[in-house]
Structure formats: C-alpha cells, structure tokens
Amino acid sequence: MLWVLAKRGLLNPGPPGKMVAQLNALRRWGFSLAGELRSAADRSPDHAAVIDSSPDGTDRTTTYRELWRRTEALALSLRARYGIGVGSKIGVLARNHAGMIASMAAGSALGAEVVLLNPALSAAAIDAVVHEQKIELVLADNDLVELIPGVPTLTETNAERLIAAPSPGDLRPPTRAGRLIVLTSGTTAAPKGARRRNPSSLSPLASVLDRIPLRVGERIFVAAPLFHTWGLAALQISLGLRATLVLQRKFDPQATVRAVEQYECPGLVAVPVMLQRLLETGVVPDPRPRVVALSGSALPGGLATHFMDVYGDCLYNLYGSTEASWVSIATPADLRTDPRTAGRPPLGTVVEIRSRDGRVLDAGQVGEIHVRNNMLFEGYTAQREATPEGLLGTGDLGHFDTDGLLYVDGRADDMIVSGGENVFPRPVEELIAQLPQVREVAVIGVDDPSFGQRLAAYIVLHPGERLDPESVREYVRHYLARFCVPRDVVFLPELPRTATGKVIPRALRLPPRRP
Predict the structure, then answer these.
(1) Boundary (domain end) residue, out of 131, 161, 178
(2) What burial class does residue 48 get, using C-beta atoms within 10 Å of its C-beta: 0-12 exposed, 13-18 middle, 19+ buried?
(3) Which CATH number does the domain housing residue 492 bear?
(4) Phi-psi domain of 498 (left: phi exceeds 0; alpha: psi -120 through 50; beta: other)
(5) pLDDT above 90 covers what percent of the chain?
(6) Is this prediction's pTM over 0.85?
(7) Nearest residue to 504 via CA among 458, 466, 448
C-alpha cells in the first residue's frame, strides 16, 4: 500500500507544520467526508479544491480553506437552527457544484446520516424516499425545490445566507461518525438506500490508485453525478489526493471538452454513455487527459476501442456496484487485450466465481461473481443482509480467463431460457453495437409462447442512418446461435437511462404485435 501511495505523490514531504495539522485532523475526524476535507484543508489550504459555476453561471474557484470554512459555517447553522446532530438524517438534492460538497460534508461533520437524492427522480419517487428514509431536512438546489413537498427544505440561496452569517459555536468531531447513504439505481425496482462505509485508513484509496494512476494535486473533471456511487468515489479520491475538482451542474459534451482543455485536466471521471457523446462532438481536448476513468454501467467493447483510438490509451474502467464499491479495474492494456474484459481485482480485493451451491469455480466456468474488499456497503437502510464468508454476491454472472482477466457475462436475472438454452443479452448487444448505423442498443428478454422467452433489441440509430429489423436479425444469425437472434427489433429515438447511463429495462415498451 505504501508503495502505491508514494508512487501517486501522497507521501511527498511538505511543510512540517501543515503535515502535522493534516495528520492531527485525520486522527480527530477520521476518514469520513468531513475528515478528508478537513485534512486536505490543513495540508493544502490555498490549493484550489473546486472549479465550478455559481447559480448565475459565472466561473468560480474555491480553495480547500474556503471549502472547509463554508462547510463549518453551514454545519454550525444546521445544528443551531434545525437541531441536526448525531443520528439525524438529512437529504441532499443537488447537482455537481461546490455547494453540494459543503452540504454533504456539513452533515458528515455533525455525525448525521446524509441521503444523496437523485434529481432525475420524480417528485413522487423522491417523496417516497424522503419518508422511507425518515429525512428531517433536505438541502436542495434552487431549481429542484419543487421536487420536495411537505418536508423542511433549505434552498441553495438560503444556505448561502447561513454560510455568510453562521450561528456561533465550536465545531468538534461528532461522538459517532455519520454515514453517507446512496440510492441504488432503481432500474428494476424502487431505489433502496445503501449505507456507505467510512474508510478506516488510506487503504481504499490505495486500492483504486493501484490501477488508476491519478496523482496528488491534479485537476480532475468529474462528469459523473456526485450523488451516485461512482461520482461520490471520485469526490473521495479527489479529497484524498488534494486534487482540484472541475465540476459542471449538467453534463454537456461540448462544454466538457472545452473545460478539460481550458483547465488542462489530466483526469476525467465519467460514465460510459458520456464517451459516445464526447466522440460525437468531433473535437478532442488539447492536451488530452492522461486518465479517463469510467464506471456506473456496462462499457461496450467497441466503444472502448474507438475511444482509445481517438483519445489515446487513457481508458480505465472500474466494474463495481453501489453495494460492492469496486470489484475489478480494467487498464488500457487490459482493454487493448480484450475490450470486453472487466480487468483484474485491485490491491486488497478478493474476487471469486461461485456456483449456485457455493463452490469456487475454475477459469472459464461461469458463475456468480463474489467480492470482498474494505469498502463493502454496510447494508440497506431498511434491513441488514449478511454476506457468506465475508464475500458479497454481486448478482452478476461472470468468469475468469486463464490469464486472470475477469469477464462479466450479464446479470443473473437478465439471463433468459429460450427453447431450453441459456441466453445472455450482453453478447448480442455487443454485436449489434458494432453495426456502423447503430448509436446505442439495449437487448432484454421478453416472454414468448413458443420458446418460453426470446430476446428483443431496442436500437437508436445515428442521425440520417437507416436499418431494417430483418437486416439486424440476419446479422446476428450470421455470428451467433439461432436462439440469440432477437424476435423483436424496435427502433427508438433514445434509450431510457438513469443519470449514470444505465438502461431502464422496465421503461422499454414493445409496439403491438402484428397478427
């Protein structure tokens, strides 16, 4: 671990007084979000923490000292005016900007549980989450307040007023560290709250940096939403590295390219669907980012290769989940070997492929992926689920090859049985995505009276392109088994996706079947 931290610049010497202050902050506050921010502010107070846009659209830079002071002022006011403290539950409904980070860190500093709400959810869905999680107060962006009916809400503007004139008092480490609660994606059911574990050391940071070579003090454009596990991980990594986060409230591919170029960002954190949008701009930032780190949804192999052909071998793909954090990380070398691979487990991570009866399977055999690392979630807020032998089943099926590369074959609940054959949608998606006319595709299982189940393909074409269903079927029939050929091929203007780019299967609708 020390070797990895040294290689990324974390063990570089600095002014003795600031190093002592940094270590003392970690000793007192721990490795919670508040502790990471406080230690970064003590070590690098004048280094830019965030470059973002204010509500009026003007660019602004916030140093680590300023970000901690804002966090401290907000925490004091939340405690004095709203009674927020250890055991309280607050919600944060915001897009990527410095105020969102201050809100999260303020809750953490008070020992409260902070629920990260998804701005893409409907008002009814957010209302259900707020009541299920027993949230006492929601801190929300000005334009999102209408999504929070019937619960005390602190708007972005009013939060700024509290920060400008904070309540008196002294902010000390809470008697019990608070937790961050991330909502699951909700692609197949209502979102559930997953308690995130607070790190107990720098080992989680070392695990990720073992495979993704970000360095101390660099500028990192974080396009992934901070309310999601991957965006939150990027925030925690950035604080650990005392890096500068470059943020925009909404993802816009043209604006992203401009910002990466303007601020010369060596790092870009995104979700896979964003890569396609960046390529469609036809513009590559100069200088190009050294590290483009992805997670949040499946990365099509053809997209990985195309992106690296344009941007260079800078792509790092983290396979994980809200519950598991990370499982494996694919480096550019891994993706060049086989763009379909999920890579290898990083430092301190154990991954096993198990059969239904719990046996560990050999290379080449498909089973459920199980993982153990030091950042597995602590359970859902509505219940606590034990994991067998300390390993968590991800619900994904996969296999290792003889060289130790991990492959994800699909969700266990995505596999269908068609005419007695086990069929996974993902290889069919990967194949159809290689057609030059196809912008994106999703393949799911549907009921079939003759075969039990069959596949259906939902395709979005590039502007101006044409393709007919039978051509798609014939293409699949040429390369794959007959039971992999989609029964239905449906063309759509866009695929329904979550904020992190995951396709929402239940939102896909077939047209009426012709007799």
Answers:
(1) 178
(2) buried
(3) 3.30.300.30
(4) beta
(5) 69
(6) yes
(7) 458
- Residue 121 belongs to what domain range? 2-45+58-178
Q: What is the pLDDT of residue 384?
A: 52
Instruction: Please name the residues in contact with 309: beta carbons below 8 A apart, sequence gap of 6 or more.
Output: none
Place of tokens 């494996």: 328
Non-local CB neighbours of 275 within 8 Å, separated by 6+ positions: 292, 294, 303, 307
pLDDT at 34: 95
Q: Tokens at residue 281, please?
A: 């701009």
Residue 512 binned pLDDT confidence (cut-offs 50, 70, 90)? very low
**Nearest by Cα to 490 from 464, 469, 471, 513:** 469
Residue 276: φ, ψ to 5°: -60, -40
**Structural domains counted in the chain:** 2
* Backbone CA torsion sign across 417, 514, 428, 316: negative
pLDDT digits (tens, 9 = 90+) for 106-119: 999 999 999 999 99
In a domain, 503, yes or no: yes
353/277 Cα distance (integer angstroms): 34
SS3 195: strand
What is the residue-averaged pLDDT of the chain?
A: 91
Out of 162, 178, 194, pick the residue that ends a domain: 178
Q: How confident is the model at residue 323 (pLDDT cuts 50, 70, 90)?
A: confident
Selected residue with higher pLDDT from 468 and 448: 468
